[in-house]
Every structure is written in C-alpha cells, then in structure tokens.
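Hi U.,

Before I forget, here's the chain from the pilot set. I'm dumping it here mostly so it's searchable later in email.
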Amino acid sequence: MTTQTGHEIRLASRPHGWPTPENFALVTVEVPDPGPGQVLIRNTYMSVDPYMRGRMNDVPSYVPPFQVDKALDGGALGEVIASNSDRVRVGDTVMHGYGWRDLVVLDDKRVRVMDARGVPSPSVLLGALGMPGLTAYVGLLDIAAFQPGEAVFVSGAAGAVGSMVGQIAKLRGAARVVGSAGSAEKVDYCVNKLGYDAAFNYRDGRVKDLLRDAAPDGIDVYFDNVGGDHLTAAIFSLKRNGRVALCGAIDQYNATAPVAGPPNLALAVGKRLTLRGYIVSDHESRMPDFLAEARVWLRDGKLACDDTIVDGLAKAPEAFIGLLRGENTGKMVVKL
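Structure:
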C-alpha cells in the first residue's frame, strides 16, 4: 500500500477562556490509499463553528470532546481523488465530518455525494444550504413554531445561522424581523442585504432598550444565538405565549466562571413563554423539506448567502478564533 503526505490541525492543549493559536498544531501525516469500500478525499472547504469551542473542553456534552494531540473534526467538502467504492466515484464532490485536514480516507458510508449545481460557490453547501441553514429552518419553524404575521428577534443576526433565520422569517411572512449584530457594518448588512426591518449594534447601549426601540410592539419569537443580556432583553419584549428557540449561547462559550441566568426568568410564567433548546442533528429528516424551499429561494435571487472565506489549512485556527470574536459575516469557511 502506498501513502501520500497530508496535513491536519490537532488540538495541542485545551483552552482556558479564549482559544489562542498555541492551542493548535499543524502536523504532517501519512495518508494511505483507500481500501475496499473506501475513498480518498482532498478537502476543498471546511467549516468552523461555534459549537467546536465546547468540544475543546473535557466535559460531557451532546458530542464527545476533542482529544489533545488528535486531529479536530467538523463539516467539510472535498473532491474524491481515488475510489474503491461502487457508490462514490473519482471526481465526486462529497460532504463529510472530517475537516481540519487536507486529505482523508473514509468508508463510502461516511460521505454524502453533493449536487453543487446552481450555487454561487461550493462553500454554500456548508452554510446557507448546509447545517447552518437547516439549523435556522428547524429552529424558527419547528422549535419556535413561527407563524406568518408574527414579529421575530434574532441575535447574531449577521452570522451563518442568524442571517438565514431573518431571511426565512421574511420569506415565510413575518410582520417584522429585528436583528442584533456587533458592528455598524453588520447592522447595515442585515437591513440592506438580508431584508431585516430593523437591526441594532448591541454595543451601542443596553440590549433591553435597543430591542424595545426596534420592536416597540413586542416580539412573538426570539431566536437565541447569544444568551446573556440578549435572552434577558427578549424575555422583557416577548408577548404572551411567545416562544424562544435556544440555539446557542456564544456569550458564554469562553467564560472562565459560572454565568448567571436571566434575572427576569420569572416573567416566563406570567407570559406563558416557551423556551426550548435543540440540536440540529436530531432533525436531519427535515433536510429535504428545507432544501426544497431554499434551493428555489436561491435560484430566484431571494436568498443571500454570503460567506467569509479564509484561505489555507494553516489559517483554520485563526478563522475559528475570529468566528468567536464575531469577525465573520455569514458563514465562516476555510478554503483549502
């Protein structure tokens, strides 16, 4: 059996607080030829996502933690360059869960052949038409039970998931969609590119006040990517029988001490609120429904799907840290 030289990013040490470049190591490895039923893939794009920060801690979670001195993993797209499979051919574009490396050998059952026709960039399959898009779709429609004519508030509104939530809400008939983001440029992007009715920079004041000004009549649905003061503000603004989709809490991911919950949670009782957390991998059966709508929206020019693309595997840690600091608009993707 012959081998090829590849490269992978390993977790060199567990972060305490914010990750640093020293927590990662770029390592050269030998990659064998594919065996029976296997394919050799050259990765072309890989995803960095906020949930990966939790996997860097050695604590129980819904996915196993990353191991020190082992390669990280995550969503990736690649081209099959050698195949011993009857199902997956050389030249196929495939999606799989082994990013953070340039070459990988996998059983053909671990890859999904993708149709990249009609998309502006293959990276869209990792973002707007991938896991972030499905996360937005499921969270808004299934978890928060959004109905046409309702008002929606989205935190992290310019990010991979948030940008899709706002657009889907508008396309599905929301009366008003409000977003929060971390810069004036992102606020402008939300309103003028994504179609939000209003957006605000959460650094400009108390989120509670900014949200009340942007949605003076209150909100029916809050899509939570942030937690913290955003969740507190949403509870104040939610109408009776309002719903919250708890998707993420990036405000807490790098905290080094316990974080207090919303101090106004008792309001959820009198308002009859529903706060529901979810993990998108539990809802993969919804992907065909999501793609059936999203591909039409994309084809008709109704769906913006901008990505922030960083070049080179060596810069993947930098891209990940930048993601946590909010340096991305849309999906943060590394091009290999």
